Give the backbone structure.
Amino acid sequence: MTRPGAFLRQVHHRFGDPVTIRTYWTPEPMVLFSGPDAVRDVFRLDPSIAPAGRSWEFLRPFAGPHSILLLDGDEHLRERRLLQRPFHGESMRQFAPLVAELAQRELSTWRGPVVALERMRLLTLDIILRVIFGARSEREMLELRDAIESTLAGVRSLPRVMSMILIPRDLGPRSPWGRFRLAVERFDALLFALLARRRAEGAGSDEDSVLSLLLQQRDEHGAPPTDQQLRDQLVALLVGGHDSSAASLAWAFERLAHHPGVQARLRQGDPAYLDATVREVLRARPALTIAPRLLLEPARIGGHTIPAGVQVAACLWLAMRRGDLWGDADAFRPERWLDGPQGRPEPNSMSWIPYGGGVRRCAGAPFAEMEMREVLRAASGLTLRPARPAPERARRSMLVLVPDRGGEVLVD
Ligand code: HEM
């Protein structure tokens, strides 16, 4: 769990594909697949026999009962349709200037040594609070930021999470679960107060945040969302979108610092090269390693019959890093995405899968890419150097992989 990149590489080298592993977070064994045909089979599994929500059960105390992360089947699809509406192209274009402004403000302070992960955690949280939660005043930002940080602090440390999984009981306010519960209660109180203010101001009539768009939702009977539903939607976007974006951006800075040639090309301002850089960061340093599903019935995957009662997972990390699937797999080379018809053929669509796939594919992918583009565009005026010559290795922080020194860069 502490060196997931090295672990996956060794496991693949020794045992090939597929491979069965056992982890501490699920009692069931997990079969990892990374070949394109098997990955497609995993993503096409019928949710009624392979619910993904069950794999995130441990998030329930924070995610809430209506969370898209925990729902499966028709309820999940219904929630997904509601949640995805604000993420269509038009809305993304509308939010980009605000994201760019927040990014420029942050990057204009970068001088000397910077730990990119720390700064990206703050920036991506500010972006979520402003653009998604629709926080307006400094006070709203401060209160929410603080409550979220103390909630997440409890589940970012590996020893704390281990003890919470081993002893899944609330043993009072000083125990890990007790502290976590109190932090969630404090966060909920602030969020419900924010929702009350936005409803009183008639938010939902304008479209200045994702929350305004969510307030316009109507169910099949024409009823607006309840506060609890909105709360669970905002938390799903926070849980899905905060650490994953911060980790991906920290990796982007770590990779750029080691590749001055890529920085020089980004400085020329070609949007196609910027897109290619974002895709290459997501390929070469995926923030999430697996997309798991729990099998309730036996299923055929990649020519193997897998029995009920095990977890099957598309291994995003291996699919995007296998030497037999990618030319020069370990190299960070945005150019690979620009090679014309004479160049390397387009990679198999089941090999570039940083957002997972099928009905559970990342609901925030357009937002994530817009955010990464805007941050890297804002950074293109800086000259970045690595703090040490060796590339950083991957370590786990809660659900995501981050650079082990946080993406230490020197800014000229
Ligand atoms: C670069 C950043 C991001 C990466 C690498 C990423 C990756 C992923 C992955 C791998 C999954 C699981 C897919 C599966 O099981 O097949 C997922 C789910 C999800 N992501 Fe993202 N994500 C990112 C950013 C975001 C952002 C910014 C948001 C929201 C604003 C978001 C919201 C979600 C949600 C709500 C789900 C659950 C979807 C469902 O269960 O139907 N993600 N993401």
About this structure: The CA atoms of residues 133 and 211 lie 5 Å apart.
